[in-house]
């Protein structure tokens, strides 16, 4: 039942503050992260993460977290590539699979390949009774509740939520973060559902931008650091449900090829909170604008103030700790795609050619 929403996707986007809060309650005991299984990241030397589609972008985001916060080397790979490459797994490697459905054929095959080869097989799943959950040594539920829209929304942010908790635990286990620093970050994480509610209030600004995006033939998404996987997710969401061709690039790659595509017909969505990489992104934005590209900047108030006046449109989000930006910036990415699809009149919840769960290769 859509509880009064026009589409399941809209309902699932709106549910994010409450399901994220539920998941935190399930995993936090005061300022201690309880995984329900003993995982000591000090004994893990390397993490191999494998998934498909949106779940893969959650892995790419988590790679930044594990490496930066915990100093734990991570390889993130697409399941259909990983499984046939038959990669050697060195001793000390844990394998981590991320899947909403827990039934994705390629992810399951990659998991089976890792059994007996990896020290430990972990999974982050939404469906607790799924094959991937059953066949893992440890399955961590994301607590998103049933997701019906083919375009994954709340499952993505709930995957990020659990992966961030894992990365924070890894940081503490590996002596990279003190208990006091952990408590401070968890405090911010607990505040995030409220911040997301504020972001949802900006829905009409996003809807206006989305109606313009819906008329474009091609759209580019750019991001650096933690925003690079978010740019990939934003582009996937847009093409999946609105059928507008969208591609994402790491901002620094722009001048290595994609800039040739820029002209006044190509909107460029730039996802960039005012973080330590912001100045570099501003110079990429200027390169785009100098070629007539229309920049839609998704940032915070400080970023909007520094970006200058030539930006086509700006979506201003509340400011949050840098480590939490991927969860917050997922919201405008989802809403842009949603409103573009509504403007185009496509079947939002059941886009053509796609299935919710891809159980064949
Ligand atoms: O059930 P899974 O998380 O394993 O599914 C993986 C992908 O098929 C899925 O994320 C797909 O990319 C979504 N439709 C994206 O919105």
UniProtKB/TrEMBL annotation:
Catalyzes the first step in hexosamine metabolism, converting fructose-6P into glucosamine-6P using glutamine as a nitrogen source. GO terms for cellular component: cytosol. It is an enzyme of class 2 (transferase). It catalyses: D-fructose 6-phosphate + L-glutamine = D-glucosamine 6-phosphate + L-glutamate. Homodimer. The active site is at 356 (for fru-6p isomerization activity). This is Glutamine--fructose-6-phosphate aminotransferase [isomerizing]. GO terms for biological process: amino sugar biosynthetic process; carbohydrate metabolic process; fructose 6-phosphate metabolic process; protein N-linked glycosylation; UDP-N-acetylglucosamine metabolic process. It is found in: Cytoplasm. GO terms for molecular function: carbohydrate derivative binding; glutamine-fructose-6-phosphate transaminase (isomerizing) activity. Keywords: Aminotransferase, Cytoplasm, Glutamine amidotransferase, Repeat, Transferase. Residues 37-176, 209-351 form the SIS domain. It comes from Roseivivax isoporae LMG 25204.
């Amino acid at each position: 039942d859509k509880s009064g929403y026009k589409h399941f996707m809209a309902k699932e986007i709106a549910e994010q503050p409450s399901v994220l809060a539920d998941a935190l309650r399930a995993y936090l005991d005061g300022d201690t992260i309880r995984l329900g299984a003993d995982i000591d990241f000090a004994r893990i030397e390397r993490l191999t993460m494998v998934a498909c589609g949106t779940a893969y972008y959650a892995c790419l985001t988590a790679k930044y977290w594990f490496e930066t916060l915990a100093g734990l080397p991570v390889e993130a790979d697409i399941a259909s590539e990983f499984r046939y490459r038959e990669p050697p797994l060195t001793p000390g490697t844990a394998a981590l699979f991320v899947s909403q459905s827990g039934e994705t054929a390629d992810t399951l095959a990659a998991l089976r390949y890792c059994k007996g080869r990896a020290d430990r097989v972990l999974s982050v799943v939404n469906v607790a009774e799924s094959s991937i959950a059953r066949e893992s040594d440890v399955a961590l539920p994301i607590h998103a509740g049933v997701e019906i829209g083919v375009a994954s929304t709340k499952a993505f942010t709930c995957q990020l939520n659990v992966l961030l908790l894992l990365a924070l635990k890894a940081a503490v286990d590996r002596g990279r973060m003190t208990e006091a620093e952990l408590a401070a970050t968890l405090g911010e994480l607990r505040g995030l559902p409220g911040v997301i509610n504020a972001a949802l209030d900006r829905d009409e600004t996003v809807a206006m931008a989305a109606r313009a995006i819906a008329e474009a033939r091609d759209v580019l998404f750019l991001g650096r650091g933690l925003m690079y996987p978010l740019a990939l997710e934003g582009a996937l969401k847009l093409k999946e449900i609105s059928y507008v061709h969208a591609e994402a690039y790491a901002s620094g790659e722009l001048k290595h090829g994609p800039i040739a595509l820029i002209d006044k017909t190509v909107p460029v969505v730039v996802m960039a909170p005012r973080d330590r990489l912001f100045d570099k992104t501003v110079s990429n934005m200027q390169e785009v604008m100098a070629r007539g590209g229309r920049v839609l900047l998704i940032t915070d108030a400080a970023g909007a103030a520094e970006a200058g006046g030539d930006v086509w449109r700006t979506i201003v989000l509340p400011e949050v700790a840098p480590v939490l930006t991927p969860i917050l910036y997922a919201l405008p990415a989802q809403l842009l795609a949603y409103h573009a699809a509504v403007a185009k009149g496509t079947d939002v919840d059941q886009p053509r050619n796609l299935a919710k769960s891809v159980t064949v290769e």
